[in-house]
Amino acid sequence: MQDAIAVQSLKSDIALLRQNIWPPANLANVEGLPIYYGSKVEVDEYYRQWTGLIERAQDLFQPFMEDEKLDAVHLPSHLNLPLFYFHVDRIRINKTRAKESKTFRGIASLIEKCGQYEPEQIQAMKRWLDSDDTAALVAHREFVDLRTYVFQHGQSEYTRTRFYVNGIVLSTEPHFELVDARDKPRKQRNDSYSDPLADNGTWKIFGKYR
Which domain of life is it from (predicted)? Predict the structure, then answer.
């Protein structure tokens, strides 16, 4: 278990360094996004300023009884450390239609989380819940998700990462390619739910069986 005081101290030091050197002044930026990139020399120089904090985090979050250090990209996002990727050949930025999903067994908790619905919709949800002992309600909220696919030299698999919480820094290869596909949203996968019992403009409510 991590030392709570040490974790809080680390987070404070990270916040202070972010105030001083984030965003990185000498690296190129993907317009409108916290994605920064540069040559190996440029990124190494910037990375050195973060090394001490990253190593402290690795020590604090080292898995019990494991000798190998935790990879920095797997450190908890709540620390707010930027993610560094090295030897990057290419990145692809995708905009994907996605949905958040929550399951409820009662209407009161659903309204608390999802907001108000018309009386007839509340009655429809109640009828569904009363229809079977295993009946439940599932709420879906659609949103647009941005993801980056990072392709690193010599690796056959890409890394898919969300970047808008902590930001990412890429140390690029000479032939680096940036593919920005934000203007071409990927299609949402077919939804197995249809005919919502209720819809308040944000959350659609469907009936399901547990």
Answer: Bacteria
Average pLDDT for 19-24 = 95
142-174 burial code (b ≥16 CB/10 A, e <16): eeebebbebbbeeeeeeeebebeebbbbbbbbe
Side chain identity, residue 26? N
Angstrom CA distances, 51 to 2, 60, 141, stand at 20, 14, 39
- Whole-model pTM: value is 0.69
Q: Give the separation between CA 40 and CA 51, rounded to whole angstroms.
A: 15
The pLDDT-based confidence of 191 (bands split at 50, 70, 90) is: low
Question: By the 8 A CB rule, do 17 and 50 touch?
Answer: yes
Q: Is 87 left (phi over 0), alpha (psi -120 to 50) or beta?
A: left
- Which of 45, 57, 46 lies closest to 81 in space, CA to CA? 57
Q: Which two tokens stand for residue 64?
A: 């019990």
**Number of neighbouring beta carbons within 10 Å of residue 9:** 13
203, pLDDT greater than 70: yes
Helices and strands of the chain, counted as H and E runs: 4, 8
